[in-house]
């Protein structure tokens, strides 16, 4: 399920899951990093240099139910990659945030970075690719 692990991502590049094509996040990444879409990333949303993967939990994912939790657990169990979870923490998703934080940080031992929207998420990804 985590197929990008064997790929070496060059510095300045991001491999994005095809499902993000056309999104505000992808549009904001264009021109700042070299964004390449791939439909076989499995559980991963974005694959960065240095064997780092981003799993992005959108406001809609949190409100819709527990599917994103299964995806996080599968990633953690199936991967030796560094996983960073970016979560859209908005007034609507705020009520779910504490549960997500507990799962990601305490139970799965992964890094959790909250953002207000896809624009902030794109800035964060650009910063992670830059160093």
TrEMBL record:
Any one of the GO BP annotations: interstrand cross-link repair
GO cellular component: Fanconi anaemia nuclear complex
Domain annotation Fanconi anemia core complex-associated protein 24 pseudonuclease: ranges: 8-130
Signal peptide range: none
Organism domain of life: Eukaryota
GO molecular function terms attached to this record: chromatin binding
One Pfam family, short name: PND
Database matches in CDD domains: XPF_nuclease_FAAP24
Gene3D superfamilies: 3.40.50.10130
InterPro entries: FAAP24, PND
PANTHER family: FANCONI ANEMIA CORE COMPLEX-ASSOCIATED PROTEIN 24
Stated name of the protein: FAP24 protein
């Amino acid at each position: 399920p985590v197929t990008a692990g064997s790929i070496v991502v060059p510095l300045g590049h991001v491999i994005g899951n095809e499902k993000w094509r056309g999104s505000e996040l992808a549009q904001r990444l264009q021109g700042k990093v070299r964004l390449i879409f791939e439909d076989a990333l499995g559980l991963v949303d974005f694959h960065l240099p240095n064997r780092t993967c981003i799993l992005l939990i959108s406001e809609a994912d949190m409100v819709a139910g527990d599917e994103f939790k299964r995806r996080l657990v599968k990633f953690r169990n199936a991967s030796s990659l560094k996983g960073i979870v970016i979560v859209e923490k908005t007034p609507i998703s705020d009520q779910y945030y504490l549960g997500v934080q507990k799962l990601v940080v305490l139970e799965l031992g992964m890094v959790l970075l909250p953002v207000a929207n896809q624009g902030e998420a794109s800035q964060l990804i650009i910063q992670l690719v830059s160093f």
